[in-house]
Specification:
Layout: E1 4-7, H1 14-21, E2 48-53, H2 56-65, H3 73-78, H4 83-88, E3 95-98, E4 101-104, H5 111-114, H6 124-132, E5 140-145, H7 153-160, H8 165-169, H9 184-203, E6 207-209
Parallel strand pairs: 1-2, 2-5
Antiparallel strand pairs: 3-4, 5-6
Length: about 210
């Protein structure tokens, strides 16, 4: 039986799908990192991987809504991002803990503070491209756009060979995070950090298999 994996940057409904699919997919809690950046790990060989992606503006806003930006070092580390970006921009003496070690850095970030960064600490575009542009992969892969996943959930279930019963139960929730509600100042700063990746995501089909 083929092993099925879900990979995502977070905040694109992957946790909901993990719960919905249950034992039909590999468990991120015990078998692998669901935010894995290395797309050539042997664990994925001869399997099927679904990478869920979405527009980065709403992904980042969802990070804030879901509390990822309280001690954001953990999520940046899970994604093998650049934790140093978060540390270097802090010019104070606050002490927090990360990986059981003391770290000087901000305990939490406001959106305005985050948008002043010069680089993306989560490396969202690089994370996506590591999986999208990988001629050496030894597995099958599907890319599913979160914003239109309602239209393609049956195709994912068929591709995973798990039956349409899961698709019948699936309901993508409307986002509580919407970049269209940003004021012009915040939107311009978001575009500075993620504009190129946003345009790339918008230009891609809703569902892509083995690019």
């Amino acid at each position: 039986m083929t092993r099925n994996y879900l990979i995502s940057p977070g905040s694109v409904g992957s946790t909901y799908l993990e719960s919905l699919f249950g034992n039909s997919i590999e468990c991120t809690k015990s078998k692998y990192n669901g935010h894995e950046r290395n797309s050539n790990l042997p664990i994925f060989n001869e399997s099927k991987v679904c990478y869920i992606f979405g527009n980065p503006y709403d992904v980042v806003l969802s990070y804030f809504r879901r509390g990822f930006m309280i001690l954001p070092y953990q999520h940046a580390s899970n994604m093998a991002g650049d934790v140093g970006v978060l540390r270097k921009t802090f010019h104070g003496s606050a002490l927090c803990w990360f990986d059981n070690e003391p770290v000087f850095g901000k305990h939490s970030w406001s959106l305005d503070e985050y948008l002043e960064l010069n680089n993306d600490p989560f490396k969202l575009e690089e994370h996506f491209l590591n999986w999208y542009r990988n001629p050496d992969r030894k597995y099958e892969i599907m890319f599913l756009k979160y914003e239109t996943s309602n239209n393609h959930i049956k195709e994912l279930c068929t591709w995973f060979n798990i039956g349409e019963k899961y698709a019948d139960k699936y309901q993508r929730k409307n986002r509580n995070s919407n970049y269209k509600n940003l004021n012009n100042t915040r939107l311009k700063k978001m575009q500075r950090l993620y504009g190129d990746f946003f345009d790339r995501v918008e230009s891609l089909p809703d569902l892509i298999i083995n690019p």
